[in-house]
Design brief:
Layout (H helix, E strand, L loop, with lengths): L4 H4 L18 H9 L37 E5 L1 H4 L3 H11 L4 E7 L12 H6 L9 H10 L3 E7 L4 H6 L27 H17 L3 E5 L23 H16 L5 E7 L15 H6 L3 E5 L19 H16 L8 E2 L2 E3 L16 H13 L5 E4 L12
Parallel strand pairs: 1-2, 1-9, 2-3, 3-4, 4-5, 5-6, 6-7, 8-9
Helix pairs in contact: 8-9, 11-12
Amino acid sequence: MEMVYTTMLLLMQLLSGGTGPESGASHQMMASYINGTAGKTIVNAPTTAVQPPDAGGGTFVKRDPQPDAPEVKGVYVTAHSAGGARLEKLLSLLNRTELNSMVIDVKDDFGYITYPTDNAELLKMGTAKKYIKDMPALMTKLKENDVYPIARIVVFKDTILAAKNPELSFVRKDGSVWKNGKGDSFVNPYSKEVWDYNIAVAKDAVKFGFKEIQFDYVRFPEGFEKKADSLKYTKTDISRVDAVAGFVKYAREQLADLDVRVSVDIFGYAASVPAAEGIGQDFVKISKYVDVISPMIYPSHYSTGWYGAKAPDRAPYQVIKGSMVDTHKKLDPIGDHKPVIRPWIQDFTASWLGKGNYMKYGKNEVEAQIKALNDTGVKEYLLWNAGNNYTEANYK
């Protein structure tokens, strides 16, 4: 779907504090989707050069490491909720409904590892908190309640790592680490050291018993193409798209022997626009190398005209159905490489959109989104609510 650029720039206005994976995106984000260009200049190339995802020859064969996994119907759970009193409320909801999975922050949006660890490899790069004081006890409780556990790892948005290791980030001419308008820093997707660190976090999560690793913020900063030439950072002669896809492929290879699924969060409208070369995201290339793709298709994040809706937030069925039609069209051509489609859907009220542009989300609106998924052949989904307050609904 081709949209007027100025309309598309309105898509990513987000509620302060975040309204889903990739929270904090700005008006610049949409511009980077449309106007981005791939950087190819070699500056201080790393010793171990990042390679394009298809380098090295051979045919990539996709194998589901968990063919007996359930049809996942899950909720997002912050580390604070997972390690606190709210966990019991969430477990009760799952036990009363068809919901069966939790996506839990293991490395959060700031870059903190969310549990205490003595893993030297992780502590060399990262900083551990005690949000989840006893990870083994948490995993035991999840298993007792038959909860399918998914570890969310925020990858390239990492203010903590950028502060500790500026050479792994993007540095201004004055030597300071670049930050976006909200004070967040990113680390460099060209850096294999960054790749290996995040994969080490993933491997640690697998040791605890997580069945799936969900990578988020698998991209360069929003609007990166407008600032790339003014920042100092290591890069190779491959495109930003290939650097990001290369990480996804490498991560899957590194985790292949652990029988864990790999998934990636991605903007929902990526199925309806060309590859986002500015931030290095290509919907198809990333999907090819993951077991599960999770597009964020919250109706509130689309602007007037998308899928024929005057006020998309007020048309949950229409918007979700349209986004899934586009997603299938985008991914059907990759055949056996097509991943499980498991979207993030909306379980929050987008009051910031203003009168007439939003409505209160509850049981009917959540069920309308699920019906749209079912009607387009999609059986899995994840619910987002930043406060982890979820609606009691029919989750079939």
